[in-house]
Amino acid sequence: MFGLDAKDTRLLILVAALVALAPFILNPFPEGSAMAQFNAGYPDLMQRFVIFGIFAIGFNILFGLTGYLSFGHAAFLGVGSYAAIWMMKLLTMNVIPAIMVSVVVAGLFSLAVGWISLRRSGIYFSILTLAFAQMSYSLAYSVLTPITGGETGLQPKTTDPRILDGALADGATAKANLFGLQMGSSYELSIGGWLFTFNAGYYVAAVVMLAAFYLSIRIFRSPFGMMLRAVKSNQHRLNYTGLNARPYTLAAFVISGMYAGLAGGLMVAMDTQVGAERMFWTASGEVVLMSILGGVGTLIGPVLGAGAIKYMENILSKINSDILHTWFAFLPDGLEDFVVTLIYPFIGKGWHLTLGLIFMLVVIFLPGGLVEGGQRIARLFKRKKPADNTPDGKTTPAE
User: Nearest to residue 111, comparing CAs of 227, 260, 278?
Assistant: First the structure.
């Protein structure tokens, strides 16, 4: 299907199913629960899940295939965001032109950065990309304030030209839309007597993420992807064969930067407020964590890593001591207080501690990330299956 083999087709269908059902299966706050008050921010969490999934997929094309570790990918995310917001201010609030321009501008910027940075490899390449990202952040924060808005950032205003849109009515606000479908709004859909409520912005971003995931599969399985793996395996040996690896690594860098720009454009489509903080080094470090946690060099790993980190960031950070006392109210008073005291440092403002511990455990025991963990579990079930089929429940020596 779509040029994919059976295994990749099943993987694409699996990701599509997970993305479609994620708003229902990942919602931890049922109505009437102690944390139902946090449901208002849940659609935003789901949008960030797929948008940062795109960001991580693109980063994995560079890091996972070539082994070049970039610490400056947030620069392309920020540049794409600024390009998108200016399209909304000058042209139209329709998200399609904004997203297209964000990809193009981020691609051009990544071409310039990659052309310089890829003259070096290893730690020197990583430091160069970090330097470019921090310079970009400084320019956006304090130097190019007429373009970037500086510390306060940019957002659409009623006085913006928007030459393709009509004039706004008095008191109206400019909202991102897809041919009239507002990105921040929820809509009701009736199917067979069942009434479903869905967030338009999430499913628009989800469709884009599936397209980006499909493209990454094609890149991984292409001769171009095989050449990138050769670069990662032994670039010096590849050079001895007479092949110049730099055009391939530069192409991978630009493609990865365009993915970041796409994510930046989608972030503006979902939240029309852009600030320089999107280009800070911590945003670059976050996508590195996503890729490693999910599984570097795997197809679905970056998506899982992005989902896990964003889920913890938005769920664990909102759990406080009162909610913990509600959860463990069935325990005796002394034991309840002890359990809450034991758990509290790892949630709320301390959720980074939990993330750090999980990251350490994954690096030490699952170098292949969450994907390797899933593969190990699958192998355990495969080993048990033949044993259950034997008459006496015993395995043969060959097994």
Answer: 260
